[in-house]
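Long-time lurker, finally posting.

We've been working with Cell division protein FtsI/penicillin-binding protein 2 (Krasilnikovia cinnamomea) and I want a structural starting point before designing mutants. I don't trust myself to interpret raw outputs, so I'm hoping someone here can both generate the structure tokens and explain anything notable. Sequence follows.
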Amino acid sequence: MRRFRHSARARDLRHRRTAAAAAAVLLLVGAATGCSSSNGPDDTLADFLTGWRSGNLDKVGFVRADGGSIKATEVLDQLQALAGDLARSPLVLNAQGEPKVTGDIAAGAIKLDWTLPGGTPWSYQSTVRMTKQDSDGWRVVWEPAIVQSELTTGDRLALRRVPAKRATILDGAGQPIVTPQQVVTIGVSPEKIKDLAQLTADLRKAFDSIDVDVDLKALKGRVAKADPGAFLDLVTLRRPDYNKIRDDVRPLNGTVFREEERLLAPTREFARALLGTVDPATKDDLVANPDTVAAGELVGHGGLQQRYDNVLRGIAGTSVVISRKSPDDNTVEDAQLFSTPPQAGTPVKTTLNAATQRAADAAVGAEPKPSALVAVRISDGNVLAVANGPDGGGVNTAFTAQVPPGSTWKMASALGLLTKKAVTADEPVDCPKTATVDGREFRNAAGEVLGKVPFHTDFAKSCNTAFVGLAPKLGADGLAQSAALLGVGAQWDMGIEAFSGKVSTGATPTELAAAAFGQGTTVVSPLAMAGATAAVARGQFRQPRLITEPAPARPAADGPALDATAVGAVRDMMREVVTSGTGTGLRNVPGKPVSGKTGTAEFADGQKDTHAWFVGWQGDVAFAVMVEKGGAGAEAAVPIVNRFLTTLNR
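Top reply, 14 upvotes:
Generated this for you. Predicted structure of Cell division protein FtsI/penicillin-binding protein 2:
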């Protein structure tokens, strides 16, 4: 901003005008008209301040500095105009002691305490001059300097914002995840379009070539309603993506382009639903945050960027200036009266691991159906990756989904049965084709029949009917206890919305039977199952951790140590799932041995669609994968895990 500079000549003229005005007041007070006060100057000052606060100055008489009359309503209008951008800011007015009286002239000191947008205080003193008339008592000498000593007629107080530097989100190593990157916004201008149908077809072809989905269906309507020279944005691309189609879109009649810098993650997919985006403030942002966000400033939308927007955005600097016309060139000049420097935002530190996140993004990105993957480090509970496929955007299903766990829940049921000593891993348990409880028939996948085999085989081959038969031994209490031991359904605080699960009450025999193998009313998120799997691998529940700075206030407490014999048997059975059970598609992945459990979850009565699951661990990394309407876990979820671990172990 430019500061208004007073020349020596201008200062001299101002001083002479002030002296002349003061003399005029003494000579011409008798010509003033309007309301008056017959009390002393202290009462007149009090009435003036009260009327200023309330917006009613009818009890106060006024006179101009040159002695001319002025109505109270005109004074109110000028007070509003002089306040300018501060007109709606809270203002506290107080007299500072008794006015000083010299004959028929009095001067009262006042203090003005403004609360600027964002809560910033600004205080200063001013002077209210008063003059006494024989017939009408004391009047206030109206002059703009009452509002602020530097103000003159035609001036106004204005606010200037200096945006703070937005902080970034950090990974577990303390490195920035979100950094400034060059982008290009591709749009169209109606006045440049010669053939809209051909332009639309050419743009669709170009966007399809880089696998970017842009909705062009509404383009015709947008063009029809827009001004001829409008910029109708279509998509914003990172510079490398834009460069791939630059030569295809630049020559098209109607296209226009805008280059700028945005705060972005390393790739478009990188934990996108978790992180959110940073974009220029929308109209809704401005309405919701009138005191803290201004047009053109950056605001977080979705995920961590929105959840921690106030932390990341920092506090904008504020300047109060006098906005006035320059006497020489008639342009607007600013004279600064008060300022506070901007306070940069504070970084938000996560536990994400860049390599693990990239592997997770690539793994779910190759699955066309919506999917989610969460990876947790077993040793400390840190969340290493949160991926939502296929493009990473939309809802953070990995944390917030509420779906049945299917046969992955047999991990929890088996732990409960073994802890209660209701069964041993080697004890024969029948696996018939069907099992009926109170008239409801339960089946195995593909009509499988194992007969009477060891319990660990029932587990590895994912026999539903074996668990239906064992459900009475597990009981509703055993179901609840095993869920609690694995942290499912507990109150978690991770610094962002996260669903830890809700476990069936097992209130009826049929509900208990269904819940024993992950159906019924039990619902979980991939995060909840990743946390439960890590607890089995670790031998104790520890709430998964994502945000370390600022740390969540109330994380769930660590659980008790799991029964060593029971959890050891569950680990062996989960290894058997991969070596000879339903997860054999992971036998040959590189790296350390993999243990886990497949799951196929029915989620609506009368529908054939099922969600596909796999939970497991390799080395120090536990994970959970869910594919919406993916079918069998071995068919849809296992291939994602294979891609994930193969990439991670390169």
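Before you design anything, note these points.
Residues 354-648 form a domain with the Beta-lactamase fold (CATH 3.40.710.10).
Residues 1-34 have pLDDT under 50 and may be disordered.
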